[in-house]
Write a structure and sequence with these properties.
globular; Rossmann fold; 14 helices; 3-hydroxyacyl-CoA dehydrogenase NAD-binding domain-containing protein; 49% helix; 8-stranded mixed sheet; NAD(P)-bd_dom_sf; N-(1-d-carboxylethyl)-l-norvaline Dehydrogenase, domain 2; 3-OHacyl-CoA_DH_NAD-bd; alpha/beta
Length: 302
């Protein structure tokens, strides 16, 4: 059993705590926002229920996760610290600076950044060699994949230790050769999102149609056969012919009017009741439940 400290108890922080508790570890969570910390237990129980945890095990799992009122309290009780604060460099730098004042130089620190350069995250650290990019996917207690990457100054011993721990939890661990913004998954995901927005801006279809196409075709295929395997399966000659024909017409946009228009009107998505789609009351919880159950239903042995 490893004792993990998580800084940030929001969407990813509480989800990572659940995933670690499922693997038998002890977790201490700290968040600077008292409201977020006060709702931690409730959100953890809801997450466990959504992934069909037997009722008799819910109490055992939640007992492994405790809250810390201060950062100083957290660091006294852990072996590894996970940073899961918002994706802003200034926030991460402030948190890591405060953390390094309180922990020994040999304590591993994992950053759950999903889009930032880990080298930039580690820029002002006293001991950047201990920082490892460990990107969990939402929801972390359901999705098996964890992406692990070094920064420019990371000691690869810490990368190997992270991979070994995650493998021991039964996660599907992939190790990147070097630091890159977005790791692998988000680069693939947002290339697709960019093209989807391009289709909207070109008047090809509406947002619901894009989701229907994804959920009833590519979403089904990619859960069984990845794009590299599929390229070989259909033939690299055909793959090249398709790209020669299609690639010149794909989006290379760096501005996104399809997002800017609803945002300028105050429509941020689920949180505001509407965005690209309408979000009536209760829809957010229904989507969260559908996401969890759909992922678990589609999980297959590699």
């Amino acid at each position: 059993m490893t004792r993990f400290g998580i800084i940030g108890g929001g969407l990813m922080g509480h989800g990572i705590a659940v995933a670690l508790a499922q693997a038998g570890h002890r977790i201490v969570v700290y968040d600077a926002d008292p409201v977020t910390l006060a709702s931690l237990d409730e959100r953890i129980v809801r997450a466990l229920e959504r992934c069909d945890t037997p009722p008799g095990d819910v109490g055992m799992m939640t007992a492994r996760i405790t809250a810390a009122k201060t950062l100083a309290d957290l660091v006294l009780r852990v072996d590894v610290v996970i940073e899961a604060v918002p994706e802003r460099l200034d926030v991460k730098h402030q948190v890591l600076a405060a953390l390094e004042e309180k922990i020994p130089a040999v304590m591993p620190v994992w950053s759950n950044t999903s889009v930032l350069s880990l080298t930039e995250v580690a820029k002002d650290m006293r001991h950047p060699q201990r920082l490892v990019g460990v990107h969990w996917w939402n929801p972390p207690y359901v999705i098996p994949l964890v992406e692990v990457a070094p920064g420019a100054e990371t000691d690869h011993r810490f990368v190997q230790e992270a991979c070994d721990m995650l493998d021991g939890m039964g996660k599907t661990t992939v190790r990147l050769h070097r630091d890159v913004r977005g790791f692998i998954g988000n680069r693939l995901q947002f290339a697709l999102v960019r093209e989807a927005l391009h289709l909207l801006e070109q008047g090809v279809c509406d947002p619901g149609t894009i989701d229907t196409v994804m959920r009833t075709s590519l979403g089904l295929r990619w859960s069984a056969v990845g794009p590299m395997e599929n390229a070989d399966f259909i033939g690299l000659d055909l793959t090249r012919d398709i790209l020669d024909s299609l690639a010149p017409h794909l989006s290379v946009a760096v501005t996104f009017p399809a997002l800017d228009k609803p945002l300028s009107a105050g429509h941020r998505g689920r949180a505001s009741g509407g965005g690209l789609l309408a979000w009536p009351a209760g829809q957010g919880e229904e989507v969260a439940e559908r996401l969890d159950s759909g992922i678990r239903r589609n999980l297959v042995e590699p």
